[in-house]
Write a structure and sequence with these properties.
5-stranded mixed sheet; Ubiquitin-like (UB roll); single chain; globular
Length: about 80
Protein backbone atom coordinates (compact mmCIF):
# COMPACT_ATOMS: atom_id res chain seq x y z
CA UNK A 1 0.00 0.00 0.00
CA UNK A 2 1.34 3.43 -0.97
CA UNK A 3 0.39 6.40 1.17
CA UNK A 4 1.25 10.10 1.15
CA UNK A 5 2.84 11.09 4.46
CA UNK A 6 2.88 14.76 5.49
CA UNK A 7 5.13 16.25 8.15
CA UNK A 8 4.43 19.55 9.94
CA UNK A 9 6.29 21.98 12.24
CA UNK A 10 9.32 20.52 14.04
CA UNK A 11 8.68 17.03 12.65
CA UNK A 12 9.16 18.52 9.17
CA UNK A 13 12.19 20.52 10.28
CA UNK A 14 13.91 17.49 11.78
CA UNK A 15 13.29 15.42 8.65
CA UNK A 16 14.12 18.16 6.19
CA UNK A 17 11.03 17.40 4.09
CA UNK A 18 7.36 18.26 4.13
CA UNK A 19 6.00 15.10 2.53
CA UNK A 20 6.78 11.84 0.80
CA UNK A 21 5.09 8.85 -0.78
CA UNK A 22 5.81 5.66 1.15
CA UNK A 23 5.22 2.05 0.20
CA UNK A 24 4.24 0.52 3.54
CA UNK A 25 5.74 -2.87 4.28
CA UNK A 26 3.53 -5.75 5.44
CA UNK A 27 2.76 -5.69 9.15
CA UNK A 28 2.46 -1.92 9.49
CA UNK A 29 -1.20 -1.68 10.49
CA UNK A 30 -1.45 1.22 12.95
CA UNK A 31 -0.18 4.77 13.35
CA UNK A 32 2.02 3.64 16.26
CA UNK A 33 3.60 0.90 14.16
CA UNK A 34 4.18 3.38 11.35
CA UNK A 35 5.93 5.84 13.68
CA UNK A 36 8.14 3.04 15.00
CA UNK A 37 8.98 1.88 11.46
CA UNK A 38 9.74 5.45 10.38
CA UNK A 39 12.03 5.95 13.39
CA UNK A 40 14.08 2.96 12.18
CA UNK A 41 14.62 4.46 8.70
CA UNK A 42 17.65 6.52 9.66
CA UNK A 43 19.10 9.18 11.89
CA UNK A 44 16.79 12.04 10.85
CA UNK A 45 13.70 9.86 11.25
CA UNK A 46 14.91 8.62 14.64
CA UNK A 47 15.36 12.24 15.72
CA UNK A 48 11.93 13.29 14.41
CA UNK A 49 10.13 10.36 16.07
CA UNK A 50 12.24 10.07 19.24
CA UNK A 51 9.20 10.93 21.39
CA UNK A 52 6.24 9.33 19.60
CA UNK A 53 3.96 9.87 22.59
CA UNK A 54 3.90 13.63 21.90
CA UNK A 55 3.42 13.44 18.13
CA UNK A 56 -0.13 13.78 16.88
CA UNK A 57 -1.44 12.10 13.74
CA UNK A 58 -4.26 12.41 11.25
CA UNK A 59 -5.56 9.96 8.68
CA UNK A 60 -7.22 11.62 5.71
CA UNK A 61 -7.47 14.84 7.76
CA UNK A 62 -9.12 13.22 10.78
CA UNK A 63 -7.20 13.26 14.06
CA UNK A 64 -6.47 9.75 15.32
CA UNK A 65 -4.70 7.98 18.15
CA UNK A 66 -1.61 5.79 17.85
CA UNK A 67 -3.73 2.62 17.81
CA UNK A 68 -5.74 3.78 14.77
CA UNK A 69 -5.63 1.38 11.83
CA UNK A 70 -4.18 2.81 8.62
CA UNK A 71 -5.77 0.39 6.19
CA UNK A 72 -7.19 2.32 3.23
CA UNK A 73 -5.55 5.62 4.20
CA UNK A 74 -4.64 7.93 1.34
CA UNK A 75 -2.87 10.53 3.49
CA UNK A 76 -1.28 10.41 6.93
CA UNK A 77 -0.01 13.54 8.68
CA UNK A 78 2.29 13.87 11.68
CA UNK A 79 2.57 17.05 13.76
CA UNK A 80 3.45 18.17 17.27
CA UNK A 81 0.79 19.15 19.80
CA UNK A 82 -0.86 22.46 19.03
CA UNK A 83 -1.74 25.20 21.44
CA UNK A 84 -4.34 27.89 21.07
CA UNK A 85 -3.93 31.53 21.64
Amino acid sequence: MTVKVLYFAWVRERLGKAQEEIELPPGIDTIGQLMSWLADRGEQYAYAFERPQVIRAAIDRNHVRADARIEGAREIAFFPPMTGG
